[in-house]
C-alpha cells in the first residue's frame, strides 16, 4: 500500500 | 478596524461549511486587499485556504493588517442564523476580542447582530511554491463530487490519471475495484447554453494517488462553483480550486500517497 505523505515535505514554512 | 459588507450571506455560509470539518480554528487575515485564510488539518496532509478580495465587498474598510482568530464551529452556528439572501456586515473594532456579524434581511425589516469571541491563535504559514502544474483539469464540480462519493464506496484512495484524452479516476478496495473516465468535452445543452465541460491542459501525463476521505471533504465547496480546477504535478500535492463567484476562491492542497 502506498504511504500518505505530509504537506510539510513539499511546502516550506514562511 | 474592519468593516466589510457582503451582499449575500450564502457565500460566507458555504465557505465556512466547506472548511469547518478540516480545520477547527484559524486566523482570518484581513488587509486592504481583502480577507484571506490558510490552515492545515491536524495531520498536515491537507491545507485549506481562501481569498475574498476587497472589491467583492461594498463597502470594504480595513486600515491595518489584522489576524482574527475564529473557531469555525462557532462561526458556522452563528451563520445558520442568517438567511441566504441577507446582507452580512462583518465588523471588528481595534483592540477588542469581539467580531460582530450583522445580518440584514432583504426587506430591511429584520436586523440581527451576533458577537463572536475571538481567539488568540499563533498560525504557521506555509510557502507554497508557485510552479506551472504539469496538468490542469477543469471539470464540473458536481461531476467531481459524484465521482469522489461513488469511489469511496470501493476504496479509501483514488488514482487520478490525466492524459490528453481525459481523466480517469480509479479505486481499488478489498472487495473489488472501479473506475470512471471523464473525456475531454465541450458540449452545448438544449438551450444553447454552454454546459459544464471538461478541459485538460498538460505538458506531461500525470498520475496521482490521493485520499478519498479528504477529497470528499473538499467537495463541500462544490456548491460555490459550477467548476473545479485541479492542478496536478507528478509526485506533488494536488491543488483544487473552486472560484467564489468573481470575488475570490477556495483552494485545497492535498499531499499525495507515494509508493515506497
Q: Can you characterise this structure?
A:
The complex is a heterodimer of chains A (14) and B (260). Chain A has strands at 3-4, 12-13. Chain A is an all-beta fold and 14 residues long. Chain A starts with a strand and ends with a strand. The model of chain A has no long low-confidence stretch (mean pLDDT 89). The mean pLDDT of chain B is 94. In chain B, α1 packs antiparallel against α2 (72-79). Chain B has a nine-stranded antiparallel β-sheet. A five-stranded antiparallel β-sheet of chain B has the order 5-1-7-8-9, with helices on one face. Chain B has a four-stranded antiparallel β-sheet with strand order 14-13-12-16. By secondary structure, chain B is mainly beta.
Report the span from N to C terminus of chain B.
Answer: 51 Å
Which two chains share the most extensive interface? Answer: A-B, 13 and 24 residues
N-to-C span of chain A: 32 Å
Query: What is the topology, as strand order, of the major beta sheet of chain B?
Result: 6-2-3-4-19-18-17-11-15
Integer-rounded radius of gyration of chain A? 10 Å
Mean of pLDDT of chain B: 94
Following the backbone from N to C, one meets helices and strands of chain A in this order, namely EE
Q: Please compute the radius of gyration of chain B using only Cα atoms.
A: 20 Å
Describe the SSE topology:
The complex is a heterodimer of chains A (14) and B (260).
Chain A: E1 3-4, E2 12-13
Chain B: E1 2-6, H1 9-17, E2 25-31, E3 34-40, E4 46-53, E5 60-62, E6 66-71, H2 72-79, E7 87-92, E8 98-104, E9 111-117, E10 126-127, E11 135-140, H3 141-151, E12 157-163, E13 166-173, E14 176-183, E15 199-202, E16 206-211, H4 212-218, E17 227-232, E18 238-244, E19 248-254, E20 257-258
Antiparallel strand pairs in B: 1-5, 1-7, 2-3, 2-6, 3-4, 4-19, 7-8, 8-9, 11-15, 11-17, 12-13, 12-16, 13-14, 17-18, 18-19
Helix pairs in contact in B: 1-2
